[in-house]
Amino acid sequence: MDIIKVSNLHTSFGKNIVHNDISFSVKEGEIFGVLGGSGSGKSVLVKQIVMLNQIQKGTIKIFDKDISKLSMQDIEKVKLDFSYLFQFGALYSFLNVIENISVMLKEYTNLPSSLIEKIAYTNLDIVGLSKHTAKLYPSELSGGMKKRVALARSLAMQPKVLFLDEPTSGLDPASTQQVNELLLYLKKNLNITIVIITHDLETIKTVLDRFIIIKKEKIFDGNINEALNSKDEFIQDFLTHKKAD
Ligand SMILES: Nc1ncnc2c1ncn2[C@@H]1O[C@H](COP(=O)(O)OP(=O)(O)OP(=O)(O)O)[C@@H](O)[C@H]1O
Question: Do the Cβ atoms of 100 and 120 come closer than 8 Å?
C-alpha cells in the first residue's frame, strides 16, 4: 500500500525552479530515501509532505487522501501519525533526557504522568540508551546520544511515519553505524515507515529500501543495486560522493 503518493509536483521560488514535475510513492513499512545535491529541494519536499510548506502545483496524497483537501480536523489527525525530526532536532537544554522524551506526550496526550514516564523509559531503551542516562542533561551527552534521544522523543508518540532530515549528520563513523543499525532495528521491530533525507553513503547503501534522487526533476527512483547499475554519470558520481554535497 502507498502511504505517500506525490504526483506532478512543481515548486519554484521566484525564478528558482526547485521541483519540476516530481512524482513518486512511498510504501508502507519501507525505509525510503530522498536524495539530491545541496539545495535540490529535499527539505522543501519533505516539509510539503508533512504540511509545513505549501504545495504550489501537483498533489500529495497521504493514506490515500489528498492533503490539500483535508479538513482542519483531518490535518490534526494526520499530523499525529507523523513525526518529523529536523536536521538539527535540538533537545531542550533545560530538560533532562527523560523529560525531553516526554515533552510531546505531556503536550498532546492526557495520559497520567506515571504512564508517560513508563513510555519514555521504553523509548529510551528502544534507542539503545541505558536508564542511567535518563537524568542527564543534553550538555552531558555525545552527539550520537543526542540524536538517539531526539529519535526516542519522536518515537514516543508512536508515529506511523517517521521523517528524518540527515539523521547521521555531524556523527563520526562509529556513531553513524550505530544510528544506521538503530534505523534497521526500528523497521524490523516497530510497524513504522521511515522517510530519510540523507547524504550519507553508508546509510544509502545499508539502510534504504528505495530512494529517489532529485535535481529539479526526479532523475532516479529505485534501490541501491539499480542505482549502482545505472549508466547515468550524475548518479554514479553522486554515489561516490563526487556530487552529493
Ligand atoms: N521559503 C523559501 N523562499 C525562497 N527560497 C526557498 C525557500 N525555501 C527554500 N528555498 C530554496 O529552495 C531550494 C531548495 O531548498 P532545500 O532546503 O529544500 O534544499 P535541500 O535539498 O534540502 O538542501 P541541503 O541538502 O543543503 O539541506 C534552495 O535553493 C533554497 O534556497
Answer: no
Q: Domain coordinates of the chain in residue numbers? A: 2-239
d(CA 189, CA 78): 22
Residues 187 and 184: their CA atoms lie apart, in Å, by 5
Residues 81-113 have pLDDT tens digits of 998 887 666 899 999 999 999 998 898 889 999
- The pTM of the full predicted model, rounded to 2 decimals, is 0.90
**Which CATH number applies to 2-239: 3.30.1510.10, 3.40.50.300, 2.40.240.20, 3.30.300.30?**
3.40.50.300
What atom of ligand 1 comes closest to residue 197's alpha carbon? 22
ipTM of this predicted structure: 0.97
Asked if 21 and 31 touch (Cβ cutoff 8 Å), the reply is no
Pocket of ligand 1 from Cβ distances under 6 Å: 13, 16, 18, 36, 38-44
Distance in Å, CA 52 to ligand 1 centroid: 14
